[in-house]
Amino acid sequence: MIGNIHKSWNKHLKEEFNAPYFKALTTFVTEEYQTQTCYPKQEEIFAAFNHCSFEETRVVIIGQDPYHGPNQANGLCFSVHDGVTHPPSLKNIFKELSTDIDKPYPTSGNLENWAKQGVLLLNATLTVRAHEAGSHQKKGWEVFTDTIIKKISQEKSDIIFLLWGGFAKKKVRLIDSDKHHIVTSGHPSPLSANRGYWFGNKCFSKTNHILNKINQKQITW
Questions:
Q1: pTM of this structure
Q2: How many CA atoms lie within 13 A of 36 on its CB side?
Q3: What phi-psi label fits residue 200: left (phi over 0), alpha (psi between -120 and 50 degrees) or beta?
Q4: H-helix or E-strand containing 164?
Q5: Block means of pLDDT (10 residues each) for the chain, length 221 residues?
Q6: Active site residue 65
Q7: What is the domain partition of the chain in residue ranges?
């Protein structure tokens, strides 16, 4: 399963790949993909890492589960394949993006371009059964992705973590706030956004402002 993860991550995650929990996770995921319809496609499970190397990571956005509808999940949190209808959370992300930095609402919901600029689009759980939200939670993925957040925090500096919603905000315990930048807001889901916890957070312009202050190239959102 790990054969298609970008080599830049291997040295940082080698111990995880050899850990008993990860071997059990690999067995579970392999069986699920053999017997159930699961998302994303197997070759896209580690897409977040393959589009954004460890060295190039500058911003981290944390999601929870992949989309569990047909043809939606592409391995990047909140992202969908080209031509796929934008899910509600992604619509709200793009609405905020439009008002925050005066950018036209994007046609494609594929966020690969963000990833290629150093935005790690990390779901806490990297796989899911079709139409069964949360079905691959508590199988080991969270241990793995928490380790990734800790590794980034420990081994890099001046990373911008965008923590959207209660689930993502809990990850603050894994991040050294003395050497990194944390931007929080409500979740872009309709439930949160309609209650006033998402719109107007200006997380995209805030991120670029921080990047400018630390003399890094801004993200073209």
A1: 0.96
A2: 17
A3: left
A4: strand 160-164
A5: 80 92 96 97 95 97 96 97 96 98 96 98 97 96 97 97 96 97 96 92 98 98 97
A6: yes
A7: 7-214
